[in-house]
Amino acid sequence: QVQLIESGGGQVQTGGSLRLSCAASDTRSNWIMAWFRQPPGKERTFVSAIHWRNNKKYYDDSVQGRFTISREAASNTVYLQMSSLKPDDTAVYYCAVDRKDRNAPADRRADEYDDWGQGTQVTVSS
């Protein structure tokens, strides 16, 4: 099991920015790291993912062009830079890892991910 610790959440106004971090206890080149989010009373949905090996990135349409995922191999950390934030972005954001050896696009289904962080709250006020 991989330990994931998120940080960087907070409260911002519409149009603001935040950067989330996810520190992993371990990484492997064939893993996929992802961010999901869960608004109050709603299901957890895919936000973005990154292949650790080839740095290929994936985004949900709702955040394309506003959010950027990146990784720092030396510290086993994945980042989610969020800009032009909207009230609809308000949610608990979770980091997750898919430890299956995938040579395919990142899966966007939450139940395909093996380990999860505790989540960090992001609140965007209008």
Quick take:
This protein has no helices and eleven strands.
What would the keywords be for this entry?
about 50% strand, four-stranded antiparallel sheet, seven-stranded mixed sheet, about 0% helix, 11 strands
Task: Give the class from helix and strand content and strand pairing.
Answer: mainly beta
Spatial gap, N to C terminus: 39 Å
The best one-word shape is globular
Largest sheet: 7 strands, mixed
Q: What percentage of the residues does DSSP assign to strands (E)?
A: over 45%
List low-pLDDT spans: none
- The gyration radius over C-alpha positions equals 13 Å
Task: Enumerate how many helices there are, as a single number.
Answer: 0
User: Whole-number average pLDDT?
Assistant: 95
Order of helices and strands: EEEEEEEEEEE
Could you explain how this protein is built, in words?
Strands 2, 4, 5, 6, 9, 10 and 11 form a seven-stranded mixed beta sheet that branches. The chain has a four-stranded antiparallel beta sheet with strand order 1-3-8-7, with no helix packed on it. The mean pLDDT is 95. It is globular. With 126 residues, the chain is mainly β. 0% of the residues lie in helices and 48% in strands.
Write the layout of secondary structure elements.
Blueprint (H helix, E strand, L loop, with lengths): L3 E4 L2 E4 L4 E7 L7 E7 L6 E7 L5 E3 L7 E6 L4 E6 L8 E8 L16 E2 L3 E6 L1
Parallel strand pairs: 2-11
Antiparallel strand pairs: 1-3, 3-8, 4-5, 4-9, 5-6, 7-8, 9-10, 9-11
